[in-house]
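# nightly structure sweep
# worker-07 picked up a monomer target from the shared queue
# config: single-sequence mode, recycle default, output format = structure tokens
# input follows
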Amino acid sequence: MIKIPYGPTYDEMLHPETIDPRTRAEALQAKAEELDPINLFNITWKDEDNQVLKIVLPKALTGVDANIIVLTGKYFPSGSHKVGPAYATLIEGCVDDTIIPGKHTILGPSTGNFGIGVAYICNLMKYDSIVIMPDNMSKERYDRIERYGAKLDLTPGTESDVILTLERTFKLKENPKNRSLAQFELMPNYRFHRHVTGYSAIEAVQGIGNSRIACFCSAPGSAGTLAAGDQIKKVFPEAKVVALEPYECSTLMNGGRGQHRIEGIGDKMCTLIHNVLNTDFIALIKDDDCVKGLKLIHDGTDILIEHGVDPATAKAMTELFGVSSICNIIGAIKMAKYLRLGPDDNIVTIATDGYDRYDSVIRNLEQRYLETEDFVLRRWFTDVFRKNGVEDIADYRSSAQKDKLFLQKERDWLKFGYAQEYLDEMKSPAFWDHEYEKVHAYDQKIIARRSREE
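# output follows
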């Protein structure tokens, strides 16, 4: 029988200081050896000093009075916070004995970062894996998945054709040896973000402004990250949760279908794990603004300094963000204006990954625009970060708007075998609280299994 390494509990991912000190020290030392399984204990938003990894964006960049705090995901093992939900889903299957090492192959339906996370976690935990994803994503994503040892199963299209990856995964699951870490539908993704990301966001604002969260913004790919908003609302009931969609593919707002360039979001569905009860607003972000903004922050350090950004901060930001991160930042700026937030107010969002997987995306931008000299970047600074206003924002707090989202969810998921009764249960807050509370039972199961294997 294959012996697999067991990693942290949910609470240890939130509070790495509670990990056995020797294990914690070994994990921190092993960061340079990313395929050492002890790196499972580095799945956290915290740094070596147990502080949330974040940046408070300079107001010279955002142009708004509110404080925009971005949790930075590039420091997670594999370079993206998506490794957290991948681990959570696999470890729950392990302790439930529904995923058996040596017997099962793991499927990871994704458009990139979750697939990278699946490939990475399966490498560390000794599982074979297959990542199912569209065939027009960035080259860097495919390269990293294969470097971690997973097989690629590519479906036609781009980010907006993720439904084809779900259909392919559904077909592959007919083979009893395959087990899917289905990020769009399985609750460990929700649990990880509500517990680990939600409480980390709450910690991140302490000592900033009024130390409260007025707004939490995130673009839904799987909608896992939006679950952080559920916990934020428990602590700060006044907080608004905002889902950000591509303007070119606004499925939640108006049933839209279309292609776009914001890898990792806008997947033409209302995901099963999306708690729409807590989505207060939906805002649309133009895809090219996100790519232009990434180019500006990565290559336009001098332009940012010209506009008043501190030189050290401008340089520090060059590697912190990916395309979807810029989408989240633009969304936060729009909501700061829409909600008329002031200098004591805090907006929190997240950077799923860093720049390291977007060189090919920027090269494509440069080919499309031909000129990306400083005079162009100056114009983009104004167009992307200053001129984005309060257009394309919709209030989704009414029961009629909630019903619209539930209908979208039914159209998306009944065809995959989910019962209407199960979908109806999701219309109650009690459903989501019950799913979240399983965190504590799984923590005990993980500790027990870890002790048994030592």
